[in-house]
Amino acid sequence: MSTYDARLAALREQLRNDRLDGFVVPLTDEHMSEYVGTYAQRLAWLTGFQGSAGAAAVLPQEAAIFTDGRYTLQVRDQVDGRHWSFQSVPQTSIADWLKDHAPDGGRIGYDPWLHTKDWVTRARAALAERGAELVAVHRNPIDAIWADRPEPSNARLVVHPDRHAGKSSAAKRQDMAAWLKEAKADTAVLSALDSIAWTFNIRGQDVDHTPVALSFALVHADGTADLFVASEKIGDDVRQHLGNGVRVHERDAFEPFLAQLGGRTIVADPERAVAAIFDALEAAKAKVVPKRDPAVLPKAIKNETEIGGHRAAQARDGAALARFLHWLSVEAPKGGIDELTASAKLHDFRAQSGNLRDLSFDTISGAGPNGAIVHYRVTEATNRPIEMGTLYLVDSGGQYPDGTTDVTRTIAVGRPSAEMRDRFTRVLKGHIALARAIFPEGTRGTQLDVLARQFLWAAGLDYAHGTGHGVGSYLAVHEGPQRIAPAGAGQAGGDEPLRAGMICSNEPGYYKSGEYGIRIENLVLIVPETVEGAEKKLLGFETLTFAPIDRTLIDAGMMTPEELNWLDSYHTKVVEIVGPQLEGEAKAWLEEVCRPL
Predict the structure, then answer these.
(1) How many domains does the chain have?
(2) Rounded to whole angstroms, how far apart are CA atoms 344 and 384?
(3) Most buried residue, 8, 23, 337, 442, by most Cβ within 10 Å?
(4) Does 415 lie in the same domain as 272?
(5) Residues 283, 361: one domain?
(6) Is residue 448 part of a domain?
(7) Domain identity same for 415 and 367
């Protein structure tokens, strides 16, 4: 099992033993999480793919791995093309591929704890056209052959205090109870880990970079709840915090508990609750109402306390990033700095605040051609020096008790080429266009996405990722339901109306394969806007992230006076917010690089 070839062969042997002709391997866990604990990294174990989104299908004679445009380059670097075909999503899907490739009359296995009910329905229908069958497995065949599979984390839960949450758990549950009564339902299933963390004002350490705990929950129309989590994870402080209104059970008691809900009306989220939950409720003869879990929208719409916390976290994070960029400006021209060194140094600057709990994701530290890999993660094998005449892209963020950050800057090391400056300026113009947008209430992210792409499109260029994602409050760095992305981009949320209080990223980019990558990312808060004579309620964006944008990459001749004014005003705010946190050479450097253009 020391090679990926051996693992693929062992899986095929296990499938033969299980009387299966194929198996589907998603990159998720029992909670439909984007980032998962090491125990659930089945796709990485099987294939070597280290990205955060993907899936695979294995048949007796062929196998395919499915990724979207963010991972086009990365998947080919990490997965052996002799044994795996590379499939692009959303141009194709697992269901479509299986319809074309599964053996006639074959039995294709899936783990019902790792797929949604909608996926099962689509895959089953596609296979039926082939005369093949989709079969739920009781034991995941990868778990049967993964001898040294890690155990799930047993890290303790911690209380997320009301001074950061802005609202008590009891009050949140009462809001959910009122929602359930209006929906004429008895209980809501919460299976998304960030929904549970938000609802109960608790945080955990079970998933790298996302402060959540492996758990399930049921919230009832009387405001009480049942929380399913390993007992060794809960101390007296958490039990006292949860109070008498929350009954605590072992996590593995969740499925048997569902069997007791017969005759009740249960809300389950078809996007976030796995097929096994729907199967158990239907077997119990419960009436299942497919609705979005009641934590999703209020979690996305930040209250004033959470917004204040975000502003504080962003200011603190901006100072750390400014110190890093100053350090880079001094050290990179000397040589000897590489991607790993830079990533570690940035982490050190963040940690110096004393408030850092974790990174919000693995830092993307991409020098030269590695910057063109959208979700690149540096390793000892891929580590490149940061050399003169190249671009360095760093996308990073921190988890602080008062907020979650995510920021990308692209830095010219030495003199950039005219093409680099052209592409960077087009990305910047798109970033500014989105940042300055004013739009009516009810507008979707799909309607705004073109604002960020228009200047790239005008030159026949584009980027293969969304322009913006939601961000949690000391929670997931990628949080729905809102997104700013093209319609039909293959990820949910683009059709969610943007609402005041939501936080999104603004991150257009450009990537030239084999040469360089460019991305400019700030976080923005959706706020009400006032326009004289307006006949509709309007919204706009307040920028939350403050860090200098590399002036040497900007072709000012391509910018309009309005764009230059936005940039100069932005840099003035950077100095106002970040400057007082710096001293000496770092402060002088910040003032210099933020001079008006």
Answers:
(1) 3
(2) 14
(3) 23
(4) no
(5) no
(6) yes
(7) yes
pTM for this prediction: 0.94
Residue 153 domain-assigned (yes or no): no
Handedness of CA 44, 50, 55, 57 (dihedral sign): negative
440 and 369 in a common domain: yes
Whole-angstrom distance, CA of residue 31 vs CA of residue 52: 15
CA-CA distance, 7 to 565, in Å (whole number)?
57
Q: Report d(CA 100, CA 96) in Å as an integer.
A: 7
At 519 the three-state DSSP class reads: strand
Residue 40's region, left for phi above 0, alpha for psi from -120 to 50, else beta, is alpha
In a domain, 482, yes or no: yes
- Looking at the structure, tell me whether residues 342 and 432 fall in a common domain: yes
Q: Pairing between strand 438-440 and 63-67?
A: unpaired
Unique residue bearing structure tokens 């000496």 = 584
CATH number, domain at 340? 3.90.230.10
- 255 and 238 within one domain: yes
End-to-end CA distance of the chain: 58
Residue-range definition of the domain harbouring residue 289: 158-295
**End-of-domain residue from the set 264, 295, 326:** 295
Same domain as 165, residue 56: no
CA distance 528 to 536: 11
CA 476/CA 31 separation, integer angstroms: 13
The pLDDT profile of the chain, 597 residues, written as one tens digit per residue, is 789 999 999 999 999 999 999 999 999 999 999 899 999 999 999 999 998 899 999 999 999 999 988 888 889 989 999 999 999 998 899 999 999 999 999 999 999 999 999 999 999 999 999 999 999 999 999 999 999 999 999 999 999 999 999 999 999 999 999 999 999 999 999 999 999 999 999 999 999 899 999 999 999 999 999 999 999 999 999 999 999 999 999 999 999 999 999 999 999 999 999 999 999 999 999 999 999 999 999 999 999 999 999 999 999 999 999 999 999 999 999 999 999 999 999 999 999 999 999 999 999 999 999 999 998 989 999 999 999 999 999 999 999 999 999 999 999 999 999 999 999 999 999 999 999 999 999 999 999 999 999 999 999 999 999 999 999 999 999 999 999 999 875 444 458 999 999 999 999 999 999 999 999 999 999 999 999 999 999 999 999 999 999 999 999 999 999 999 999 999 999 999 999 999 999 999 999 999 999
In this structure, is residue 163 part of a structural domain?
yes
* 224 within 8 A of 246, measured Cβ to Cβ: yes
Nearest-5° Cα angle at 18, 12 to 20: 65
CATH code at position 276: 3.40.350.10
Residue 111 shares a structural domain with residue 191 = no
